[in-house]
Amino acid sequence: MERPLGASLEARTSVSPDTPPGPASPDDRPAAGPSKPPSGPDPRPSTAPSGPEPRPLPGPPGRRARDIRLLWTANAADALGTQASGVVLPLLLLGLGHSPAVVGLIAGVSTAAGLVTGPLAAVPADRGARKKVMFWSAVVSSLAMASVALAVADGSPALPHLLGAVLVERFSTACYEAASRGTVALIAAPADVPRVVAGLEAGGQGALVLGPALGGALFQVSRFLPFVVDALSYAVAAVCVRAIRADLAAPGDHVRDRPGVPGPSAGSARAGAHPRALVAGIAAGYTLVRDSALLRLVLVWTTTVSGVLTALYYGAVFTLQEGGHRAAPMGLVLAASGAAGLLGSLTAPRLARRVRPGRALVSVSWLMVPLAAGLAAATGPWAYGALFAAFCLIMPLATVILQSRAIQATPRHLQARAGAVLATAAGGAAALAPALAGLLAAPAGAAVPTGGCAVLLAVLACWTTAKAGRSLAPGRAA
User: Fold this and answer.
1) Pick the CATH number of 6-471 from 3.40.50.150, 3.20.20.450, 1.10.3720.10, 1.20.1250.20
2) Mean pLDDT value across the chain
3) pLDDT (tens digit per residue) in 416-432
4) Angle at 133 between CA 131 and CA 138, to 5 degrees
């Protein structure tokens, strides 16, 4: 149950597992999961683990197309339910008499729980349990939200119940996201990956437009209805995952994590549960990212942009609040950014085929600089809505490119773990950004953190200009 604002802006840049985050590439493909920009060629010989030779995708094209539609449906349903319930959860807590501090505490704890759980769940996913983890995570999340709906319908739910259910749902969702990384590479033909990633992105953007409005309308009818929708959305996701015919096991899932080091056998779930084996499994993803110049650039780019977009959003919140505006203007910003992101997601695959990936990434990086500078000078909701919409219009192109290159650079049996490293870094930056923006805005005004974000994006654009061309060259791998 993620926050609808900063979280949704940040999701556009992250290498999303299904996703996705997301805050396009030519013919190279991304793994479902956090987006990963590439970096300049590494002069040293790579020590990153190399996966086994990819095997042909199972099943005929018709079966793969069916699996892709199921994945799209699961992602869109999940996102719609999350947005519908996430937008009203703070309202529910405040309506029950809890303070804003309690609301913030629950949001912070649930975010931290997701960041901790993701890397742990990535290990069994990469070792052959991807489909089981996705299915049971969706089932548990559905039950957790159903318990919230029942408690709210019954009267005044207890705070420990709400906190426990939110934490269970966040843990389960983090497991689902971690396991889903790499799914696109396992069910889509290479030439189809950008289109599949863009479809996942479009589903998330459509949910961002419809979800908050649906949740708010249902909340007005009855407070428990948005949580019913969220529970049903997880149930739909579970049914879709179970219906996918591909087993979602990568060719090297049961082989090894590092060259020369035997990994757990196909049926050895207990080996993966051993603490030392778990630590070694998590470390394999970190090692891959550390030793790959391409994935290091992905890490720096997505982490920086995720933190910056979240800080810019909260800077807008602070400025509008100082100007006496209420929640409606922020709804305008959210709706405008969601609609622009949907349009950008639908056009990204075609643009990715026509523009060289290095040039596209550099262009997006530099275009973000004047947009951030404009946010530093903006004061009204219409200006904020237009500028954030512009951000979200251009971001899907970079997301598809980076996800595609990241998939190409990551062995299939390490995609969940490498994706967890990238997602944790981007999520951590997005979690810290509001606090830093608030600390800077308190003494000097909201324009200070926003101006700092523009400078940081300019530095990132310079670095991307130096690195992107060679890193995104065809054939570049980890």
Assistant:
1) 1.20.1250.20
2) 75
3) 788 888 888 888 887 77
4) 100
